[in-house]
Each structure stands twice: as C-alpha cells, then as structure tokens.
Amino acid sequence: MPKGLSGKKMIERYLSTNFGGPFTPIDPSQFKTLSGAEGMIKSRAVEHLVVFDDISKQAIVAGYGSSSSVGVPGGVDYTGKTVTHNHPGIYGGTLSFADVTFATGYNVKSMRAVGANKKEGTYILRKGRNANPTGLNSRIAKDRPMLERKMTAVYNKHKDKTTVFFAQEYTGILDSYYKSVVSQYGYVYAKQGD
Ligand SMILES: [Zn+2]
C-alpha cells in the first residue's frame, strides 16, 4: 500500500509560500515528450519538476525535491514555458498556492501537476490568449486567507489525515476555487485523463 502524505506534509505542500524547496538537477534530455515525462514522474515518491520549451518541444530543466515540494531553479526564463511536476502521496491533489503563484508570477504558458493516484489525472492551469496573469496573481493573494481558513477547517475535522478521503476534501477546496475563478482572468483550468 502506498502511504499517504502525513497531514504535516500536506500542509507543507499546500500552504508553502515560496518556490525555494529542495532541487537536485537531473538530465532533462531523458524526458522526450510532455506526456512521456508525466507518465514517468507520476509514481515517483518525491516531486519531480520538468520544464518544456514550447518552441523546441524539448525539456530544458529537470530535477527533483522532496515528497512535498520541489524548488524551481533560478536563471531560467519561464515565460511561455510548460512546467510540469508530480504530486506524490496516496492522492496528490491539485495545484498548490505556490504552483499557481509561480505560474502567474512568472507568466508560464501552462502549469501542470500530475496526481499520484491512479484515478487522478493531471491538473492544468493554462493561459488563454488574453490572460491577465497579474490579475489572477493578486486575486489569489487576496483570497488566500479565506481559502486557508476553509482548508484548516477540513484539516481539523479529519482524525486520520493520511487517507484519500481527507486529501480529496482538503485539496478539493482549491479545485473548486480554480474552477470558478481562473476563467475570469483568461485562464483555463482543466483536468486531463481522469
Ligand atoms: Zn505542486
């Protein structure tokens, strides 16, 4: 049985405020395509990050972090890039605050999180043609305290925080939020393969 992330690890993933997590670089050329990369990293026990250039279609950055985070290396222009990573655990859940803040702050084309559960697909935040990344970034910053309050209430309600049931409800707050809000800023929130 794959072990769920502890409640503490879920909090680390979902309430982290920066992208300064651990990052150990690996050779990006082992990842030939986006779907191939996502298939490879889906079942890894630690978070892996792979960045694709949309023009060359090649992976330009790859590395791994811990079970609850992966850092994003500096010195890379992320504008217009496709950034994917995996969320390990019994149920990985959707994009975290740090993921979405990074995606909008660095103006990436698409930010993707591959959930570890077989029944989960890939969660995707994609820029539309007239997207307003700054607007979405500020909106999330403004709504974050309200979302955190809801997430904390779910956290406190569950005795066992290692179950799929807990993780689904905890991350479901963000999932519903993205569904209703990001389109107002010209973004698309989608789930692939679930
Ligand atoms: Zn993430």
Describe this structure in words.
The protein has helices spanning 7-15, 34-41, 97-105, 133-157, 164-181, and strands at residues 24-25, 48-52, 59-64, 82-87, 110-115, 122-127, 187-192. It is an alpha+beta fold and 194 residues long. It has one domain (7-192). The protein has a seven-stranded mixed β-sheet, sandwiched between helices. β5 and β6 (122-127) form a beta hairpin. The longest helix has 25 residues, at 133-157. Residues 85, 87, 95-96, 99, 113 line the site of zinc ion (ZN).
- Percentage of β-strand residues: 15-25%
Bound molecules: zinc ion
Q: Number of DSSP helices?
A: 5
Mean pLDDT: 94
Helix content: 25-40%
| Spatial arrangement of strands, main beta sheet | 1-3-2-4-5-6-7
E-strand count: 7
Structural class: alpha+beta
Q: What letter string, H or E per element, gives the SSE order?
A: HEHEEEHEEHHE
Cα-atom radius of gyration: 16 Å
Number of domains: 1
Low-confidence stretches: none
Report the principal-axis shape.
globular
Q: Kindly, what is the distance between the CA atoms of the first and last residues, rounded to a whole number of angstroms?
A: 21 Å
The main β sheet shows up as: 7 strands, mixed
